[in-house]
TrEMBL record, chain A:
Protein name: Amino acid ABC transporter membrane protein, PAAT family
Topological type in the membrane: Multi-pass membrane protein
Residue intervals passing through the bilayer: 33-61, 82-104, 201-221
Subcellular location per the Swiss-Prot or TrEMBL entry: Cell membrane
Assigned keywords, A-Z: Amino-acid transport, Cell membrane, Membrane, Transmembrane, Transmembrane helix, Transport
Family the entry assigns: Belongs to the binding-protein-dependent transport system permease family.
GO terms for cellular component: ATP-binding cassette (ABC) transporter complex
Superkingdom of source: Bacteria
A molecular function GO annotation: L-cystine transmembrane transporter activity
All residue ranges annotated as the ABC transmembrane type-1 domain in the record: 34-222
Gene3D superfamilies: MetI-like (1.10.3720.10)
Organism: Halobacillus dabanensis
From TrEMBL, chain B:
Native source species: Halobacillus dabanensis
Family matches, as Pfam families: ABC_tran (PF00005)
Subcellular location: Cell membrane
Residue stretches making up the ABC transporter domain: 2-240
Keywords assigned by UniProt, alphabetized: ATP-binding, Cell membrane, Membrane, Nucleotide-binding, Transport
Membrane topology: Peripheral membrane protein
Name by which UniProt lists this protein: Cystine transport system ATP-binding protein
Superkingdom per UniProt: Bacteria
Signal peptide bounds: none
Keyword Zinc-finger in record: no
Matching InterPro entries: AAA+_ATPase, ABC_ATPase_HisP-typ, ABC_transporter-like_ATP-bd, ABC_transporter-like_CS, MetN_ABC_transporter-like, P-loop_NTPase
GO CC annotation, single: plasma membrane
């Protein structure tokens, strides 16, 4: 540790070497982020959101079978580790003849995960809309579906943006788990680079830095969106 | 226009509406008064099927619902289209402007074109004195303005009956007048209205008939001068004494 630090601060030769490693690994890592980590995040978040809305509506419906399906799904996904789920999909399913490539395995695993967690967020948001909003909708002649679509969901969307943003940021970081099922996203890229030059601290820190920059950028966008949608909440 | 026969409603063990019978003619303004907790809101909400009574029959226009039989969802939706409702705390849609609040029924329920609905909504809002506030969101309006948007929204689908549940009791005193003026105008135009209110001067001036409720039952009904000046019912007298203090 001491040697490492003193090398960085005092030895110009070592400084050059570290600088070279940083510069030469930066582009592959950023590429890994833009070509693999971010697309994987966006795709699974979108699919997960559709699953989440459907699951939330099933939980809130009057049909017992729907409630039961939604509850079991959420319970199973939330009650088991994401890493184990990914392993079952990628390494497990081939034993019964279902082989899915790393990319689709990751998509399936993360989407199912997002669907379960976000359905709870969306359910809570729908329940947080005052009963009077349903009643006002009904009083002007709307059906339940019209009230949901025109009045309740738009307001619930605003309510759920902060928790959904958190879940999105969580997802970006969780996609690093896809490295364990051989999907070459940014973190697996960093593992490959470090395996060549043995500069684990340097390269993994660089990967961490890139995750951090992406997350900070997203928080910034989140704030802007929230401010713009502020009028959507009942006061 | 409205006929209520033998209506009963309970919340658990609490018998809130006890065998209510009531009749409202077309163009009539009926004011419902009574102490808090007497069941006025529940009666009004039952007329709009926001509550489902266990027993009794409500007829509005040419549609009837008998609550002793299972009621179909579709039937309820059709039934509600005949009446508008103005809530005590307005329940405006916060994500819509005043104009959009009023357009919503015509566009979503009646499938009228947006352009036409916008024109009509603007007319109605102008009529209730909010021609300048079309693009304001509810939170940018005063309580009285919000309540007038609520009235405009209830009117927008061309209903023949409007139900008002204490439309002014959540308002600052200086804002009450504007809302009551709009209601008087509607009454003059021949709208059928059922109004729950504590504004006795409004009742005396505008009502064709006053219904006094206590403990879930209709105690007395009649023209305003009968109720307010010559009541023979001790419970009515007691209530009026308390209100007038
Ligand atoms: N959703 C409800 N659940 C249980 N009790 C209720 C509910 N709504 C009203 N009540 C009760 O019914 C009675 C009548 O209420 P309400 O119709 O609001 O009276 P009013 O409008 O005359 O003040 C009150 O005792 C009230 O507490
Ligand atoms: Mg009430």
């Amino acid at each position: 540790m001491k040697m490492y630090l003193s090398n960085i601060f005092t030895n110009p030769e070592m400084q050059d070497k570290y600088m070279d490693i940083l510069v030469s690994s930066f582009l592959p890592l950023v590429k890994g982020a833009f070509y693999y980590t971010i697309p994987l995040t966006l795709i699974t978040f979108a699919i997960g959101l559709v699953l989440a809305v459907l699951t939330a509506l099933m939980r809130l419906s009057n049909v017992k079978a729907f409630q039961w399906i939604a509850r079991s799904y959420v319970s199973i996904i939330r009650g088991t580790p994401l890493l184990v789920q990914l392993f079952i999909i990628f390494f497990g399913l081939p034993s019964i003849g279902v082989t899915i490539n790393p990319f689709y395995s990751a998509i399936i695993g993360f989407s199912l995960n997002m669907g379960a967690y976000n359905s709870e967020i969306i359910r809570a948001a729908i329940l947080s809309i005052p009963k009077g909003q349903w009643e006002a909708s009904h009083s002007i002649g709307m059906t339940n579906f019209q009230a949901l679509k025109r009045v309740v969901l738009p307001q619930a969307t605003r309510v759920s943006i902060p928790p959904l943003s958190n879940s999105f940021i969580g997802l970006i970081k969780d996609t690093s788990l896809a490295s364990t099922i051989t999907y070459t996203e940014m973190f697996r890229k960093s593992q490959e680079i470090a395996a060549n030059n043995y500069e684990f601290l340097l390269v993994y820190s660089e990967a961490a830095f890139i995750y951090w920059v992406i997350c900070v950028g997203l928080s910034f966008i989140q704030d802007r969106v929230e401010n713009r949608l502020d009028q959507y909440v009942a006061k | 226009m409205i006929t209520v026969k033998g209506l009963n409603k309970s919340f658990g063990d609490l018998h809130v509406l006890k065998n209510i019978n009531m009749n409202v003619d077309r163009g009539e303004v009926v004011v419902v008064i009574g102490p808090s907790g007497s069941g006025k809101t529940t009666l009004l909400r039952s007329l709009n099927i926001l509550e489902t009574p266990e027993q009794g029959e409500i007829t509005i226009g040419d549609q009837s619902i008998d609550f002793s039989k299972p009621v179909k969802k579709k039937q309820v939706v059709e039934f509600r289209k005949q009446t508008g409702m103005v809530f005590q705390n307005h329940n405006l849609f916060p994500h819509f402007t005043a104009l959009e609040n009023v357009m919503e029924g015509p566009v979503t329920v009646q499938k009228i074109s947006k352009a036409k609905a916008r024109e009509r909504a603007a007319d109605i809002l102008t009529k209730v004195g909010l021609g300048e506030k079309l693009d304001s969101y509810p939170h940018q309006l005063s309580g009285g303005q919000q309540q007038r948007v609520g009235i405009a929204r209830a009117l927008a689908t061309g209903v023949e009956v409007i139900l008002f549940d204490e439309p002014t009791s959540a308002l600052d005193p200086e804002l009450v007048g504007d809302v009551l003026d709009v209601m008087k105008e509607l009454a003059d135009e021949g709208m059928t209205m059922v109004v729950v209110t504590h504004e006795m001067s409004f009742a005396e001036e505008v009502a064709d008939r006053v219904i006094f409720m206590d403990q879930g039952a209709v105690v007395e009904e009649g023209p305003p001068e009968q109720i307010f000046q010559h009541t023979q019912e001790p419970r009515t007298q007691q209530f009026l004494n308390r209100i007038r203090k």
